[in-house]
Design goal:
This is Response regulator transcription factor. The chain has 226 residues and is an alpha/beta fold. The protein has eleven helices and five strands.
Length: 226
């Protein structure tokens, strides 16, 4: 099936470049362009987008606010947001993951990386750009309003998970794929996928990116210090 992509960036030149790239792929098509967050939310509803490439800094409603609106709308539950940013570890990126984005990608990424990110996001498995290290985003996600960033409410929700689901969640938070987790636990990738899906359902996560946020903010996984 064709992946329907919405482009949200206040720079027309960048949108044009992204359109040419995306439309050149046989399994993708650009269904709309937005110059601000409010327009992006409206077009996501009207055009039936599957993936939104969202710039963070836009006039009016910015990408962060737009991501929150999309994530909170039940009618847009299938829509995946990939944040495009100049600085891949910018605090805005961390906030966008918490707001419900499926991942982020630097604007300086190679074209193949952008296309791959769209496909991965559409499959519900987006998290980090290839240039980001696993531990780095973990440290940012763990920074909260209090001393350790731990969210007691989310910690309590982990009690609904089985022991194996918690084990899988820890490995997901480490950036491991289903195949890698299956090899470590000596089970089939299908079994891992089942555990991941059950954990997502129990924790109310839209995708793997939100599972990682929950794992760190609940205190199940602690950030690296090196």
């Amino acid at each position: 099936m064709t992946i329907r992509v919405l482009l949200a960036d206040d720079q027309a030149l960048l949108r044009s470049a992204f359109r040419v790239l995306v439309d050149s792929e046989p399994d993708m098509e650009v269904v709309g362009e937005a110059s601000d967050g409010a327009e992006a939310v409206m077009l996501a509803r009207e055009r039936g987008a599957d993936v939104v490439l969202m710039d963070i800094r836009m006039p009016g409603t910015d990408g962060l606010a737009a991501t929150r609106l999309i994530s909170a709308d039940p009618a847009l539950a299938h829509v995946r947001v990939v944040i495009l940013t100049t600085f891949e570890v910018d605090d805005y990126v961390v906030q966008s993951l918490r707001a419900g984005a499926s991942g982020f990608l630097g604007k300086g990424s190679e074209p193949e990386e952008l296309l791959s990110a769209i496909r991965v996001a559409n499959g519900g498995e987006a998290l980090l750009s290839p240039a980001a290290t696993k531990g780095l985003i973990a440290r940012f996600l763990a920074q909260g309003e209090d001393d350790d960033g731990r969210d007691p409410a989310r910690s309590d929700r982990l009690d609904t998970l089985t022991g194996r689901e918690r084990e899988v969640l820890v490995l997901v938070a480490g950036g491991h794929s289903n195949d890698e987790i299956a090899e470590r636990l000596q089970v089939s990738p299908l079994t891992v996928k089942t555990h991941v899906n059950r954990a997502m359902a129990k924790l109310g996560a839209r995708d793997r990116a939100q599972l990682v946020v929950i794992a760190y903010e609940s205190g199940l996984v602690r950030p690296r210090t090196e």
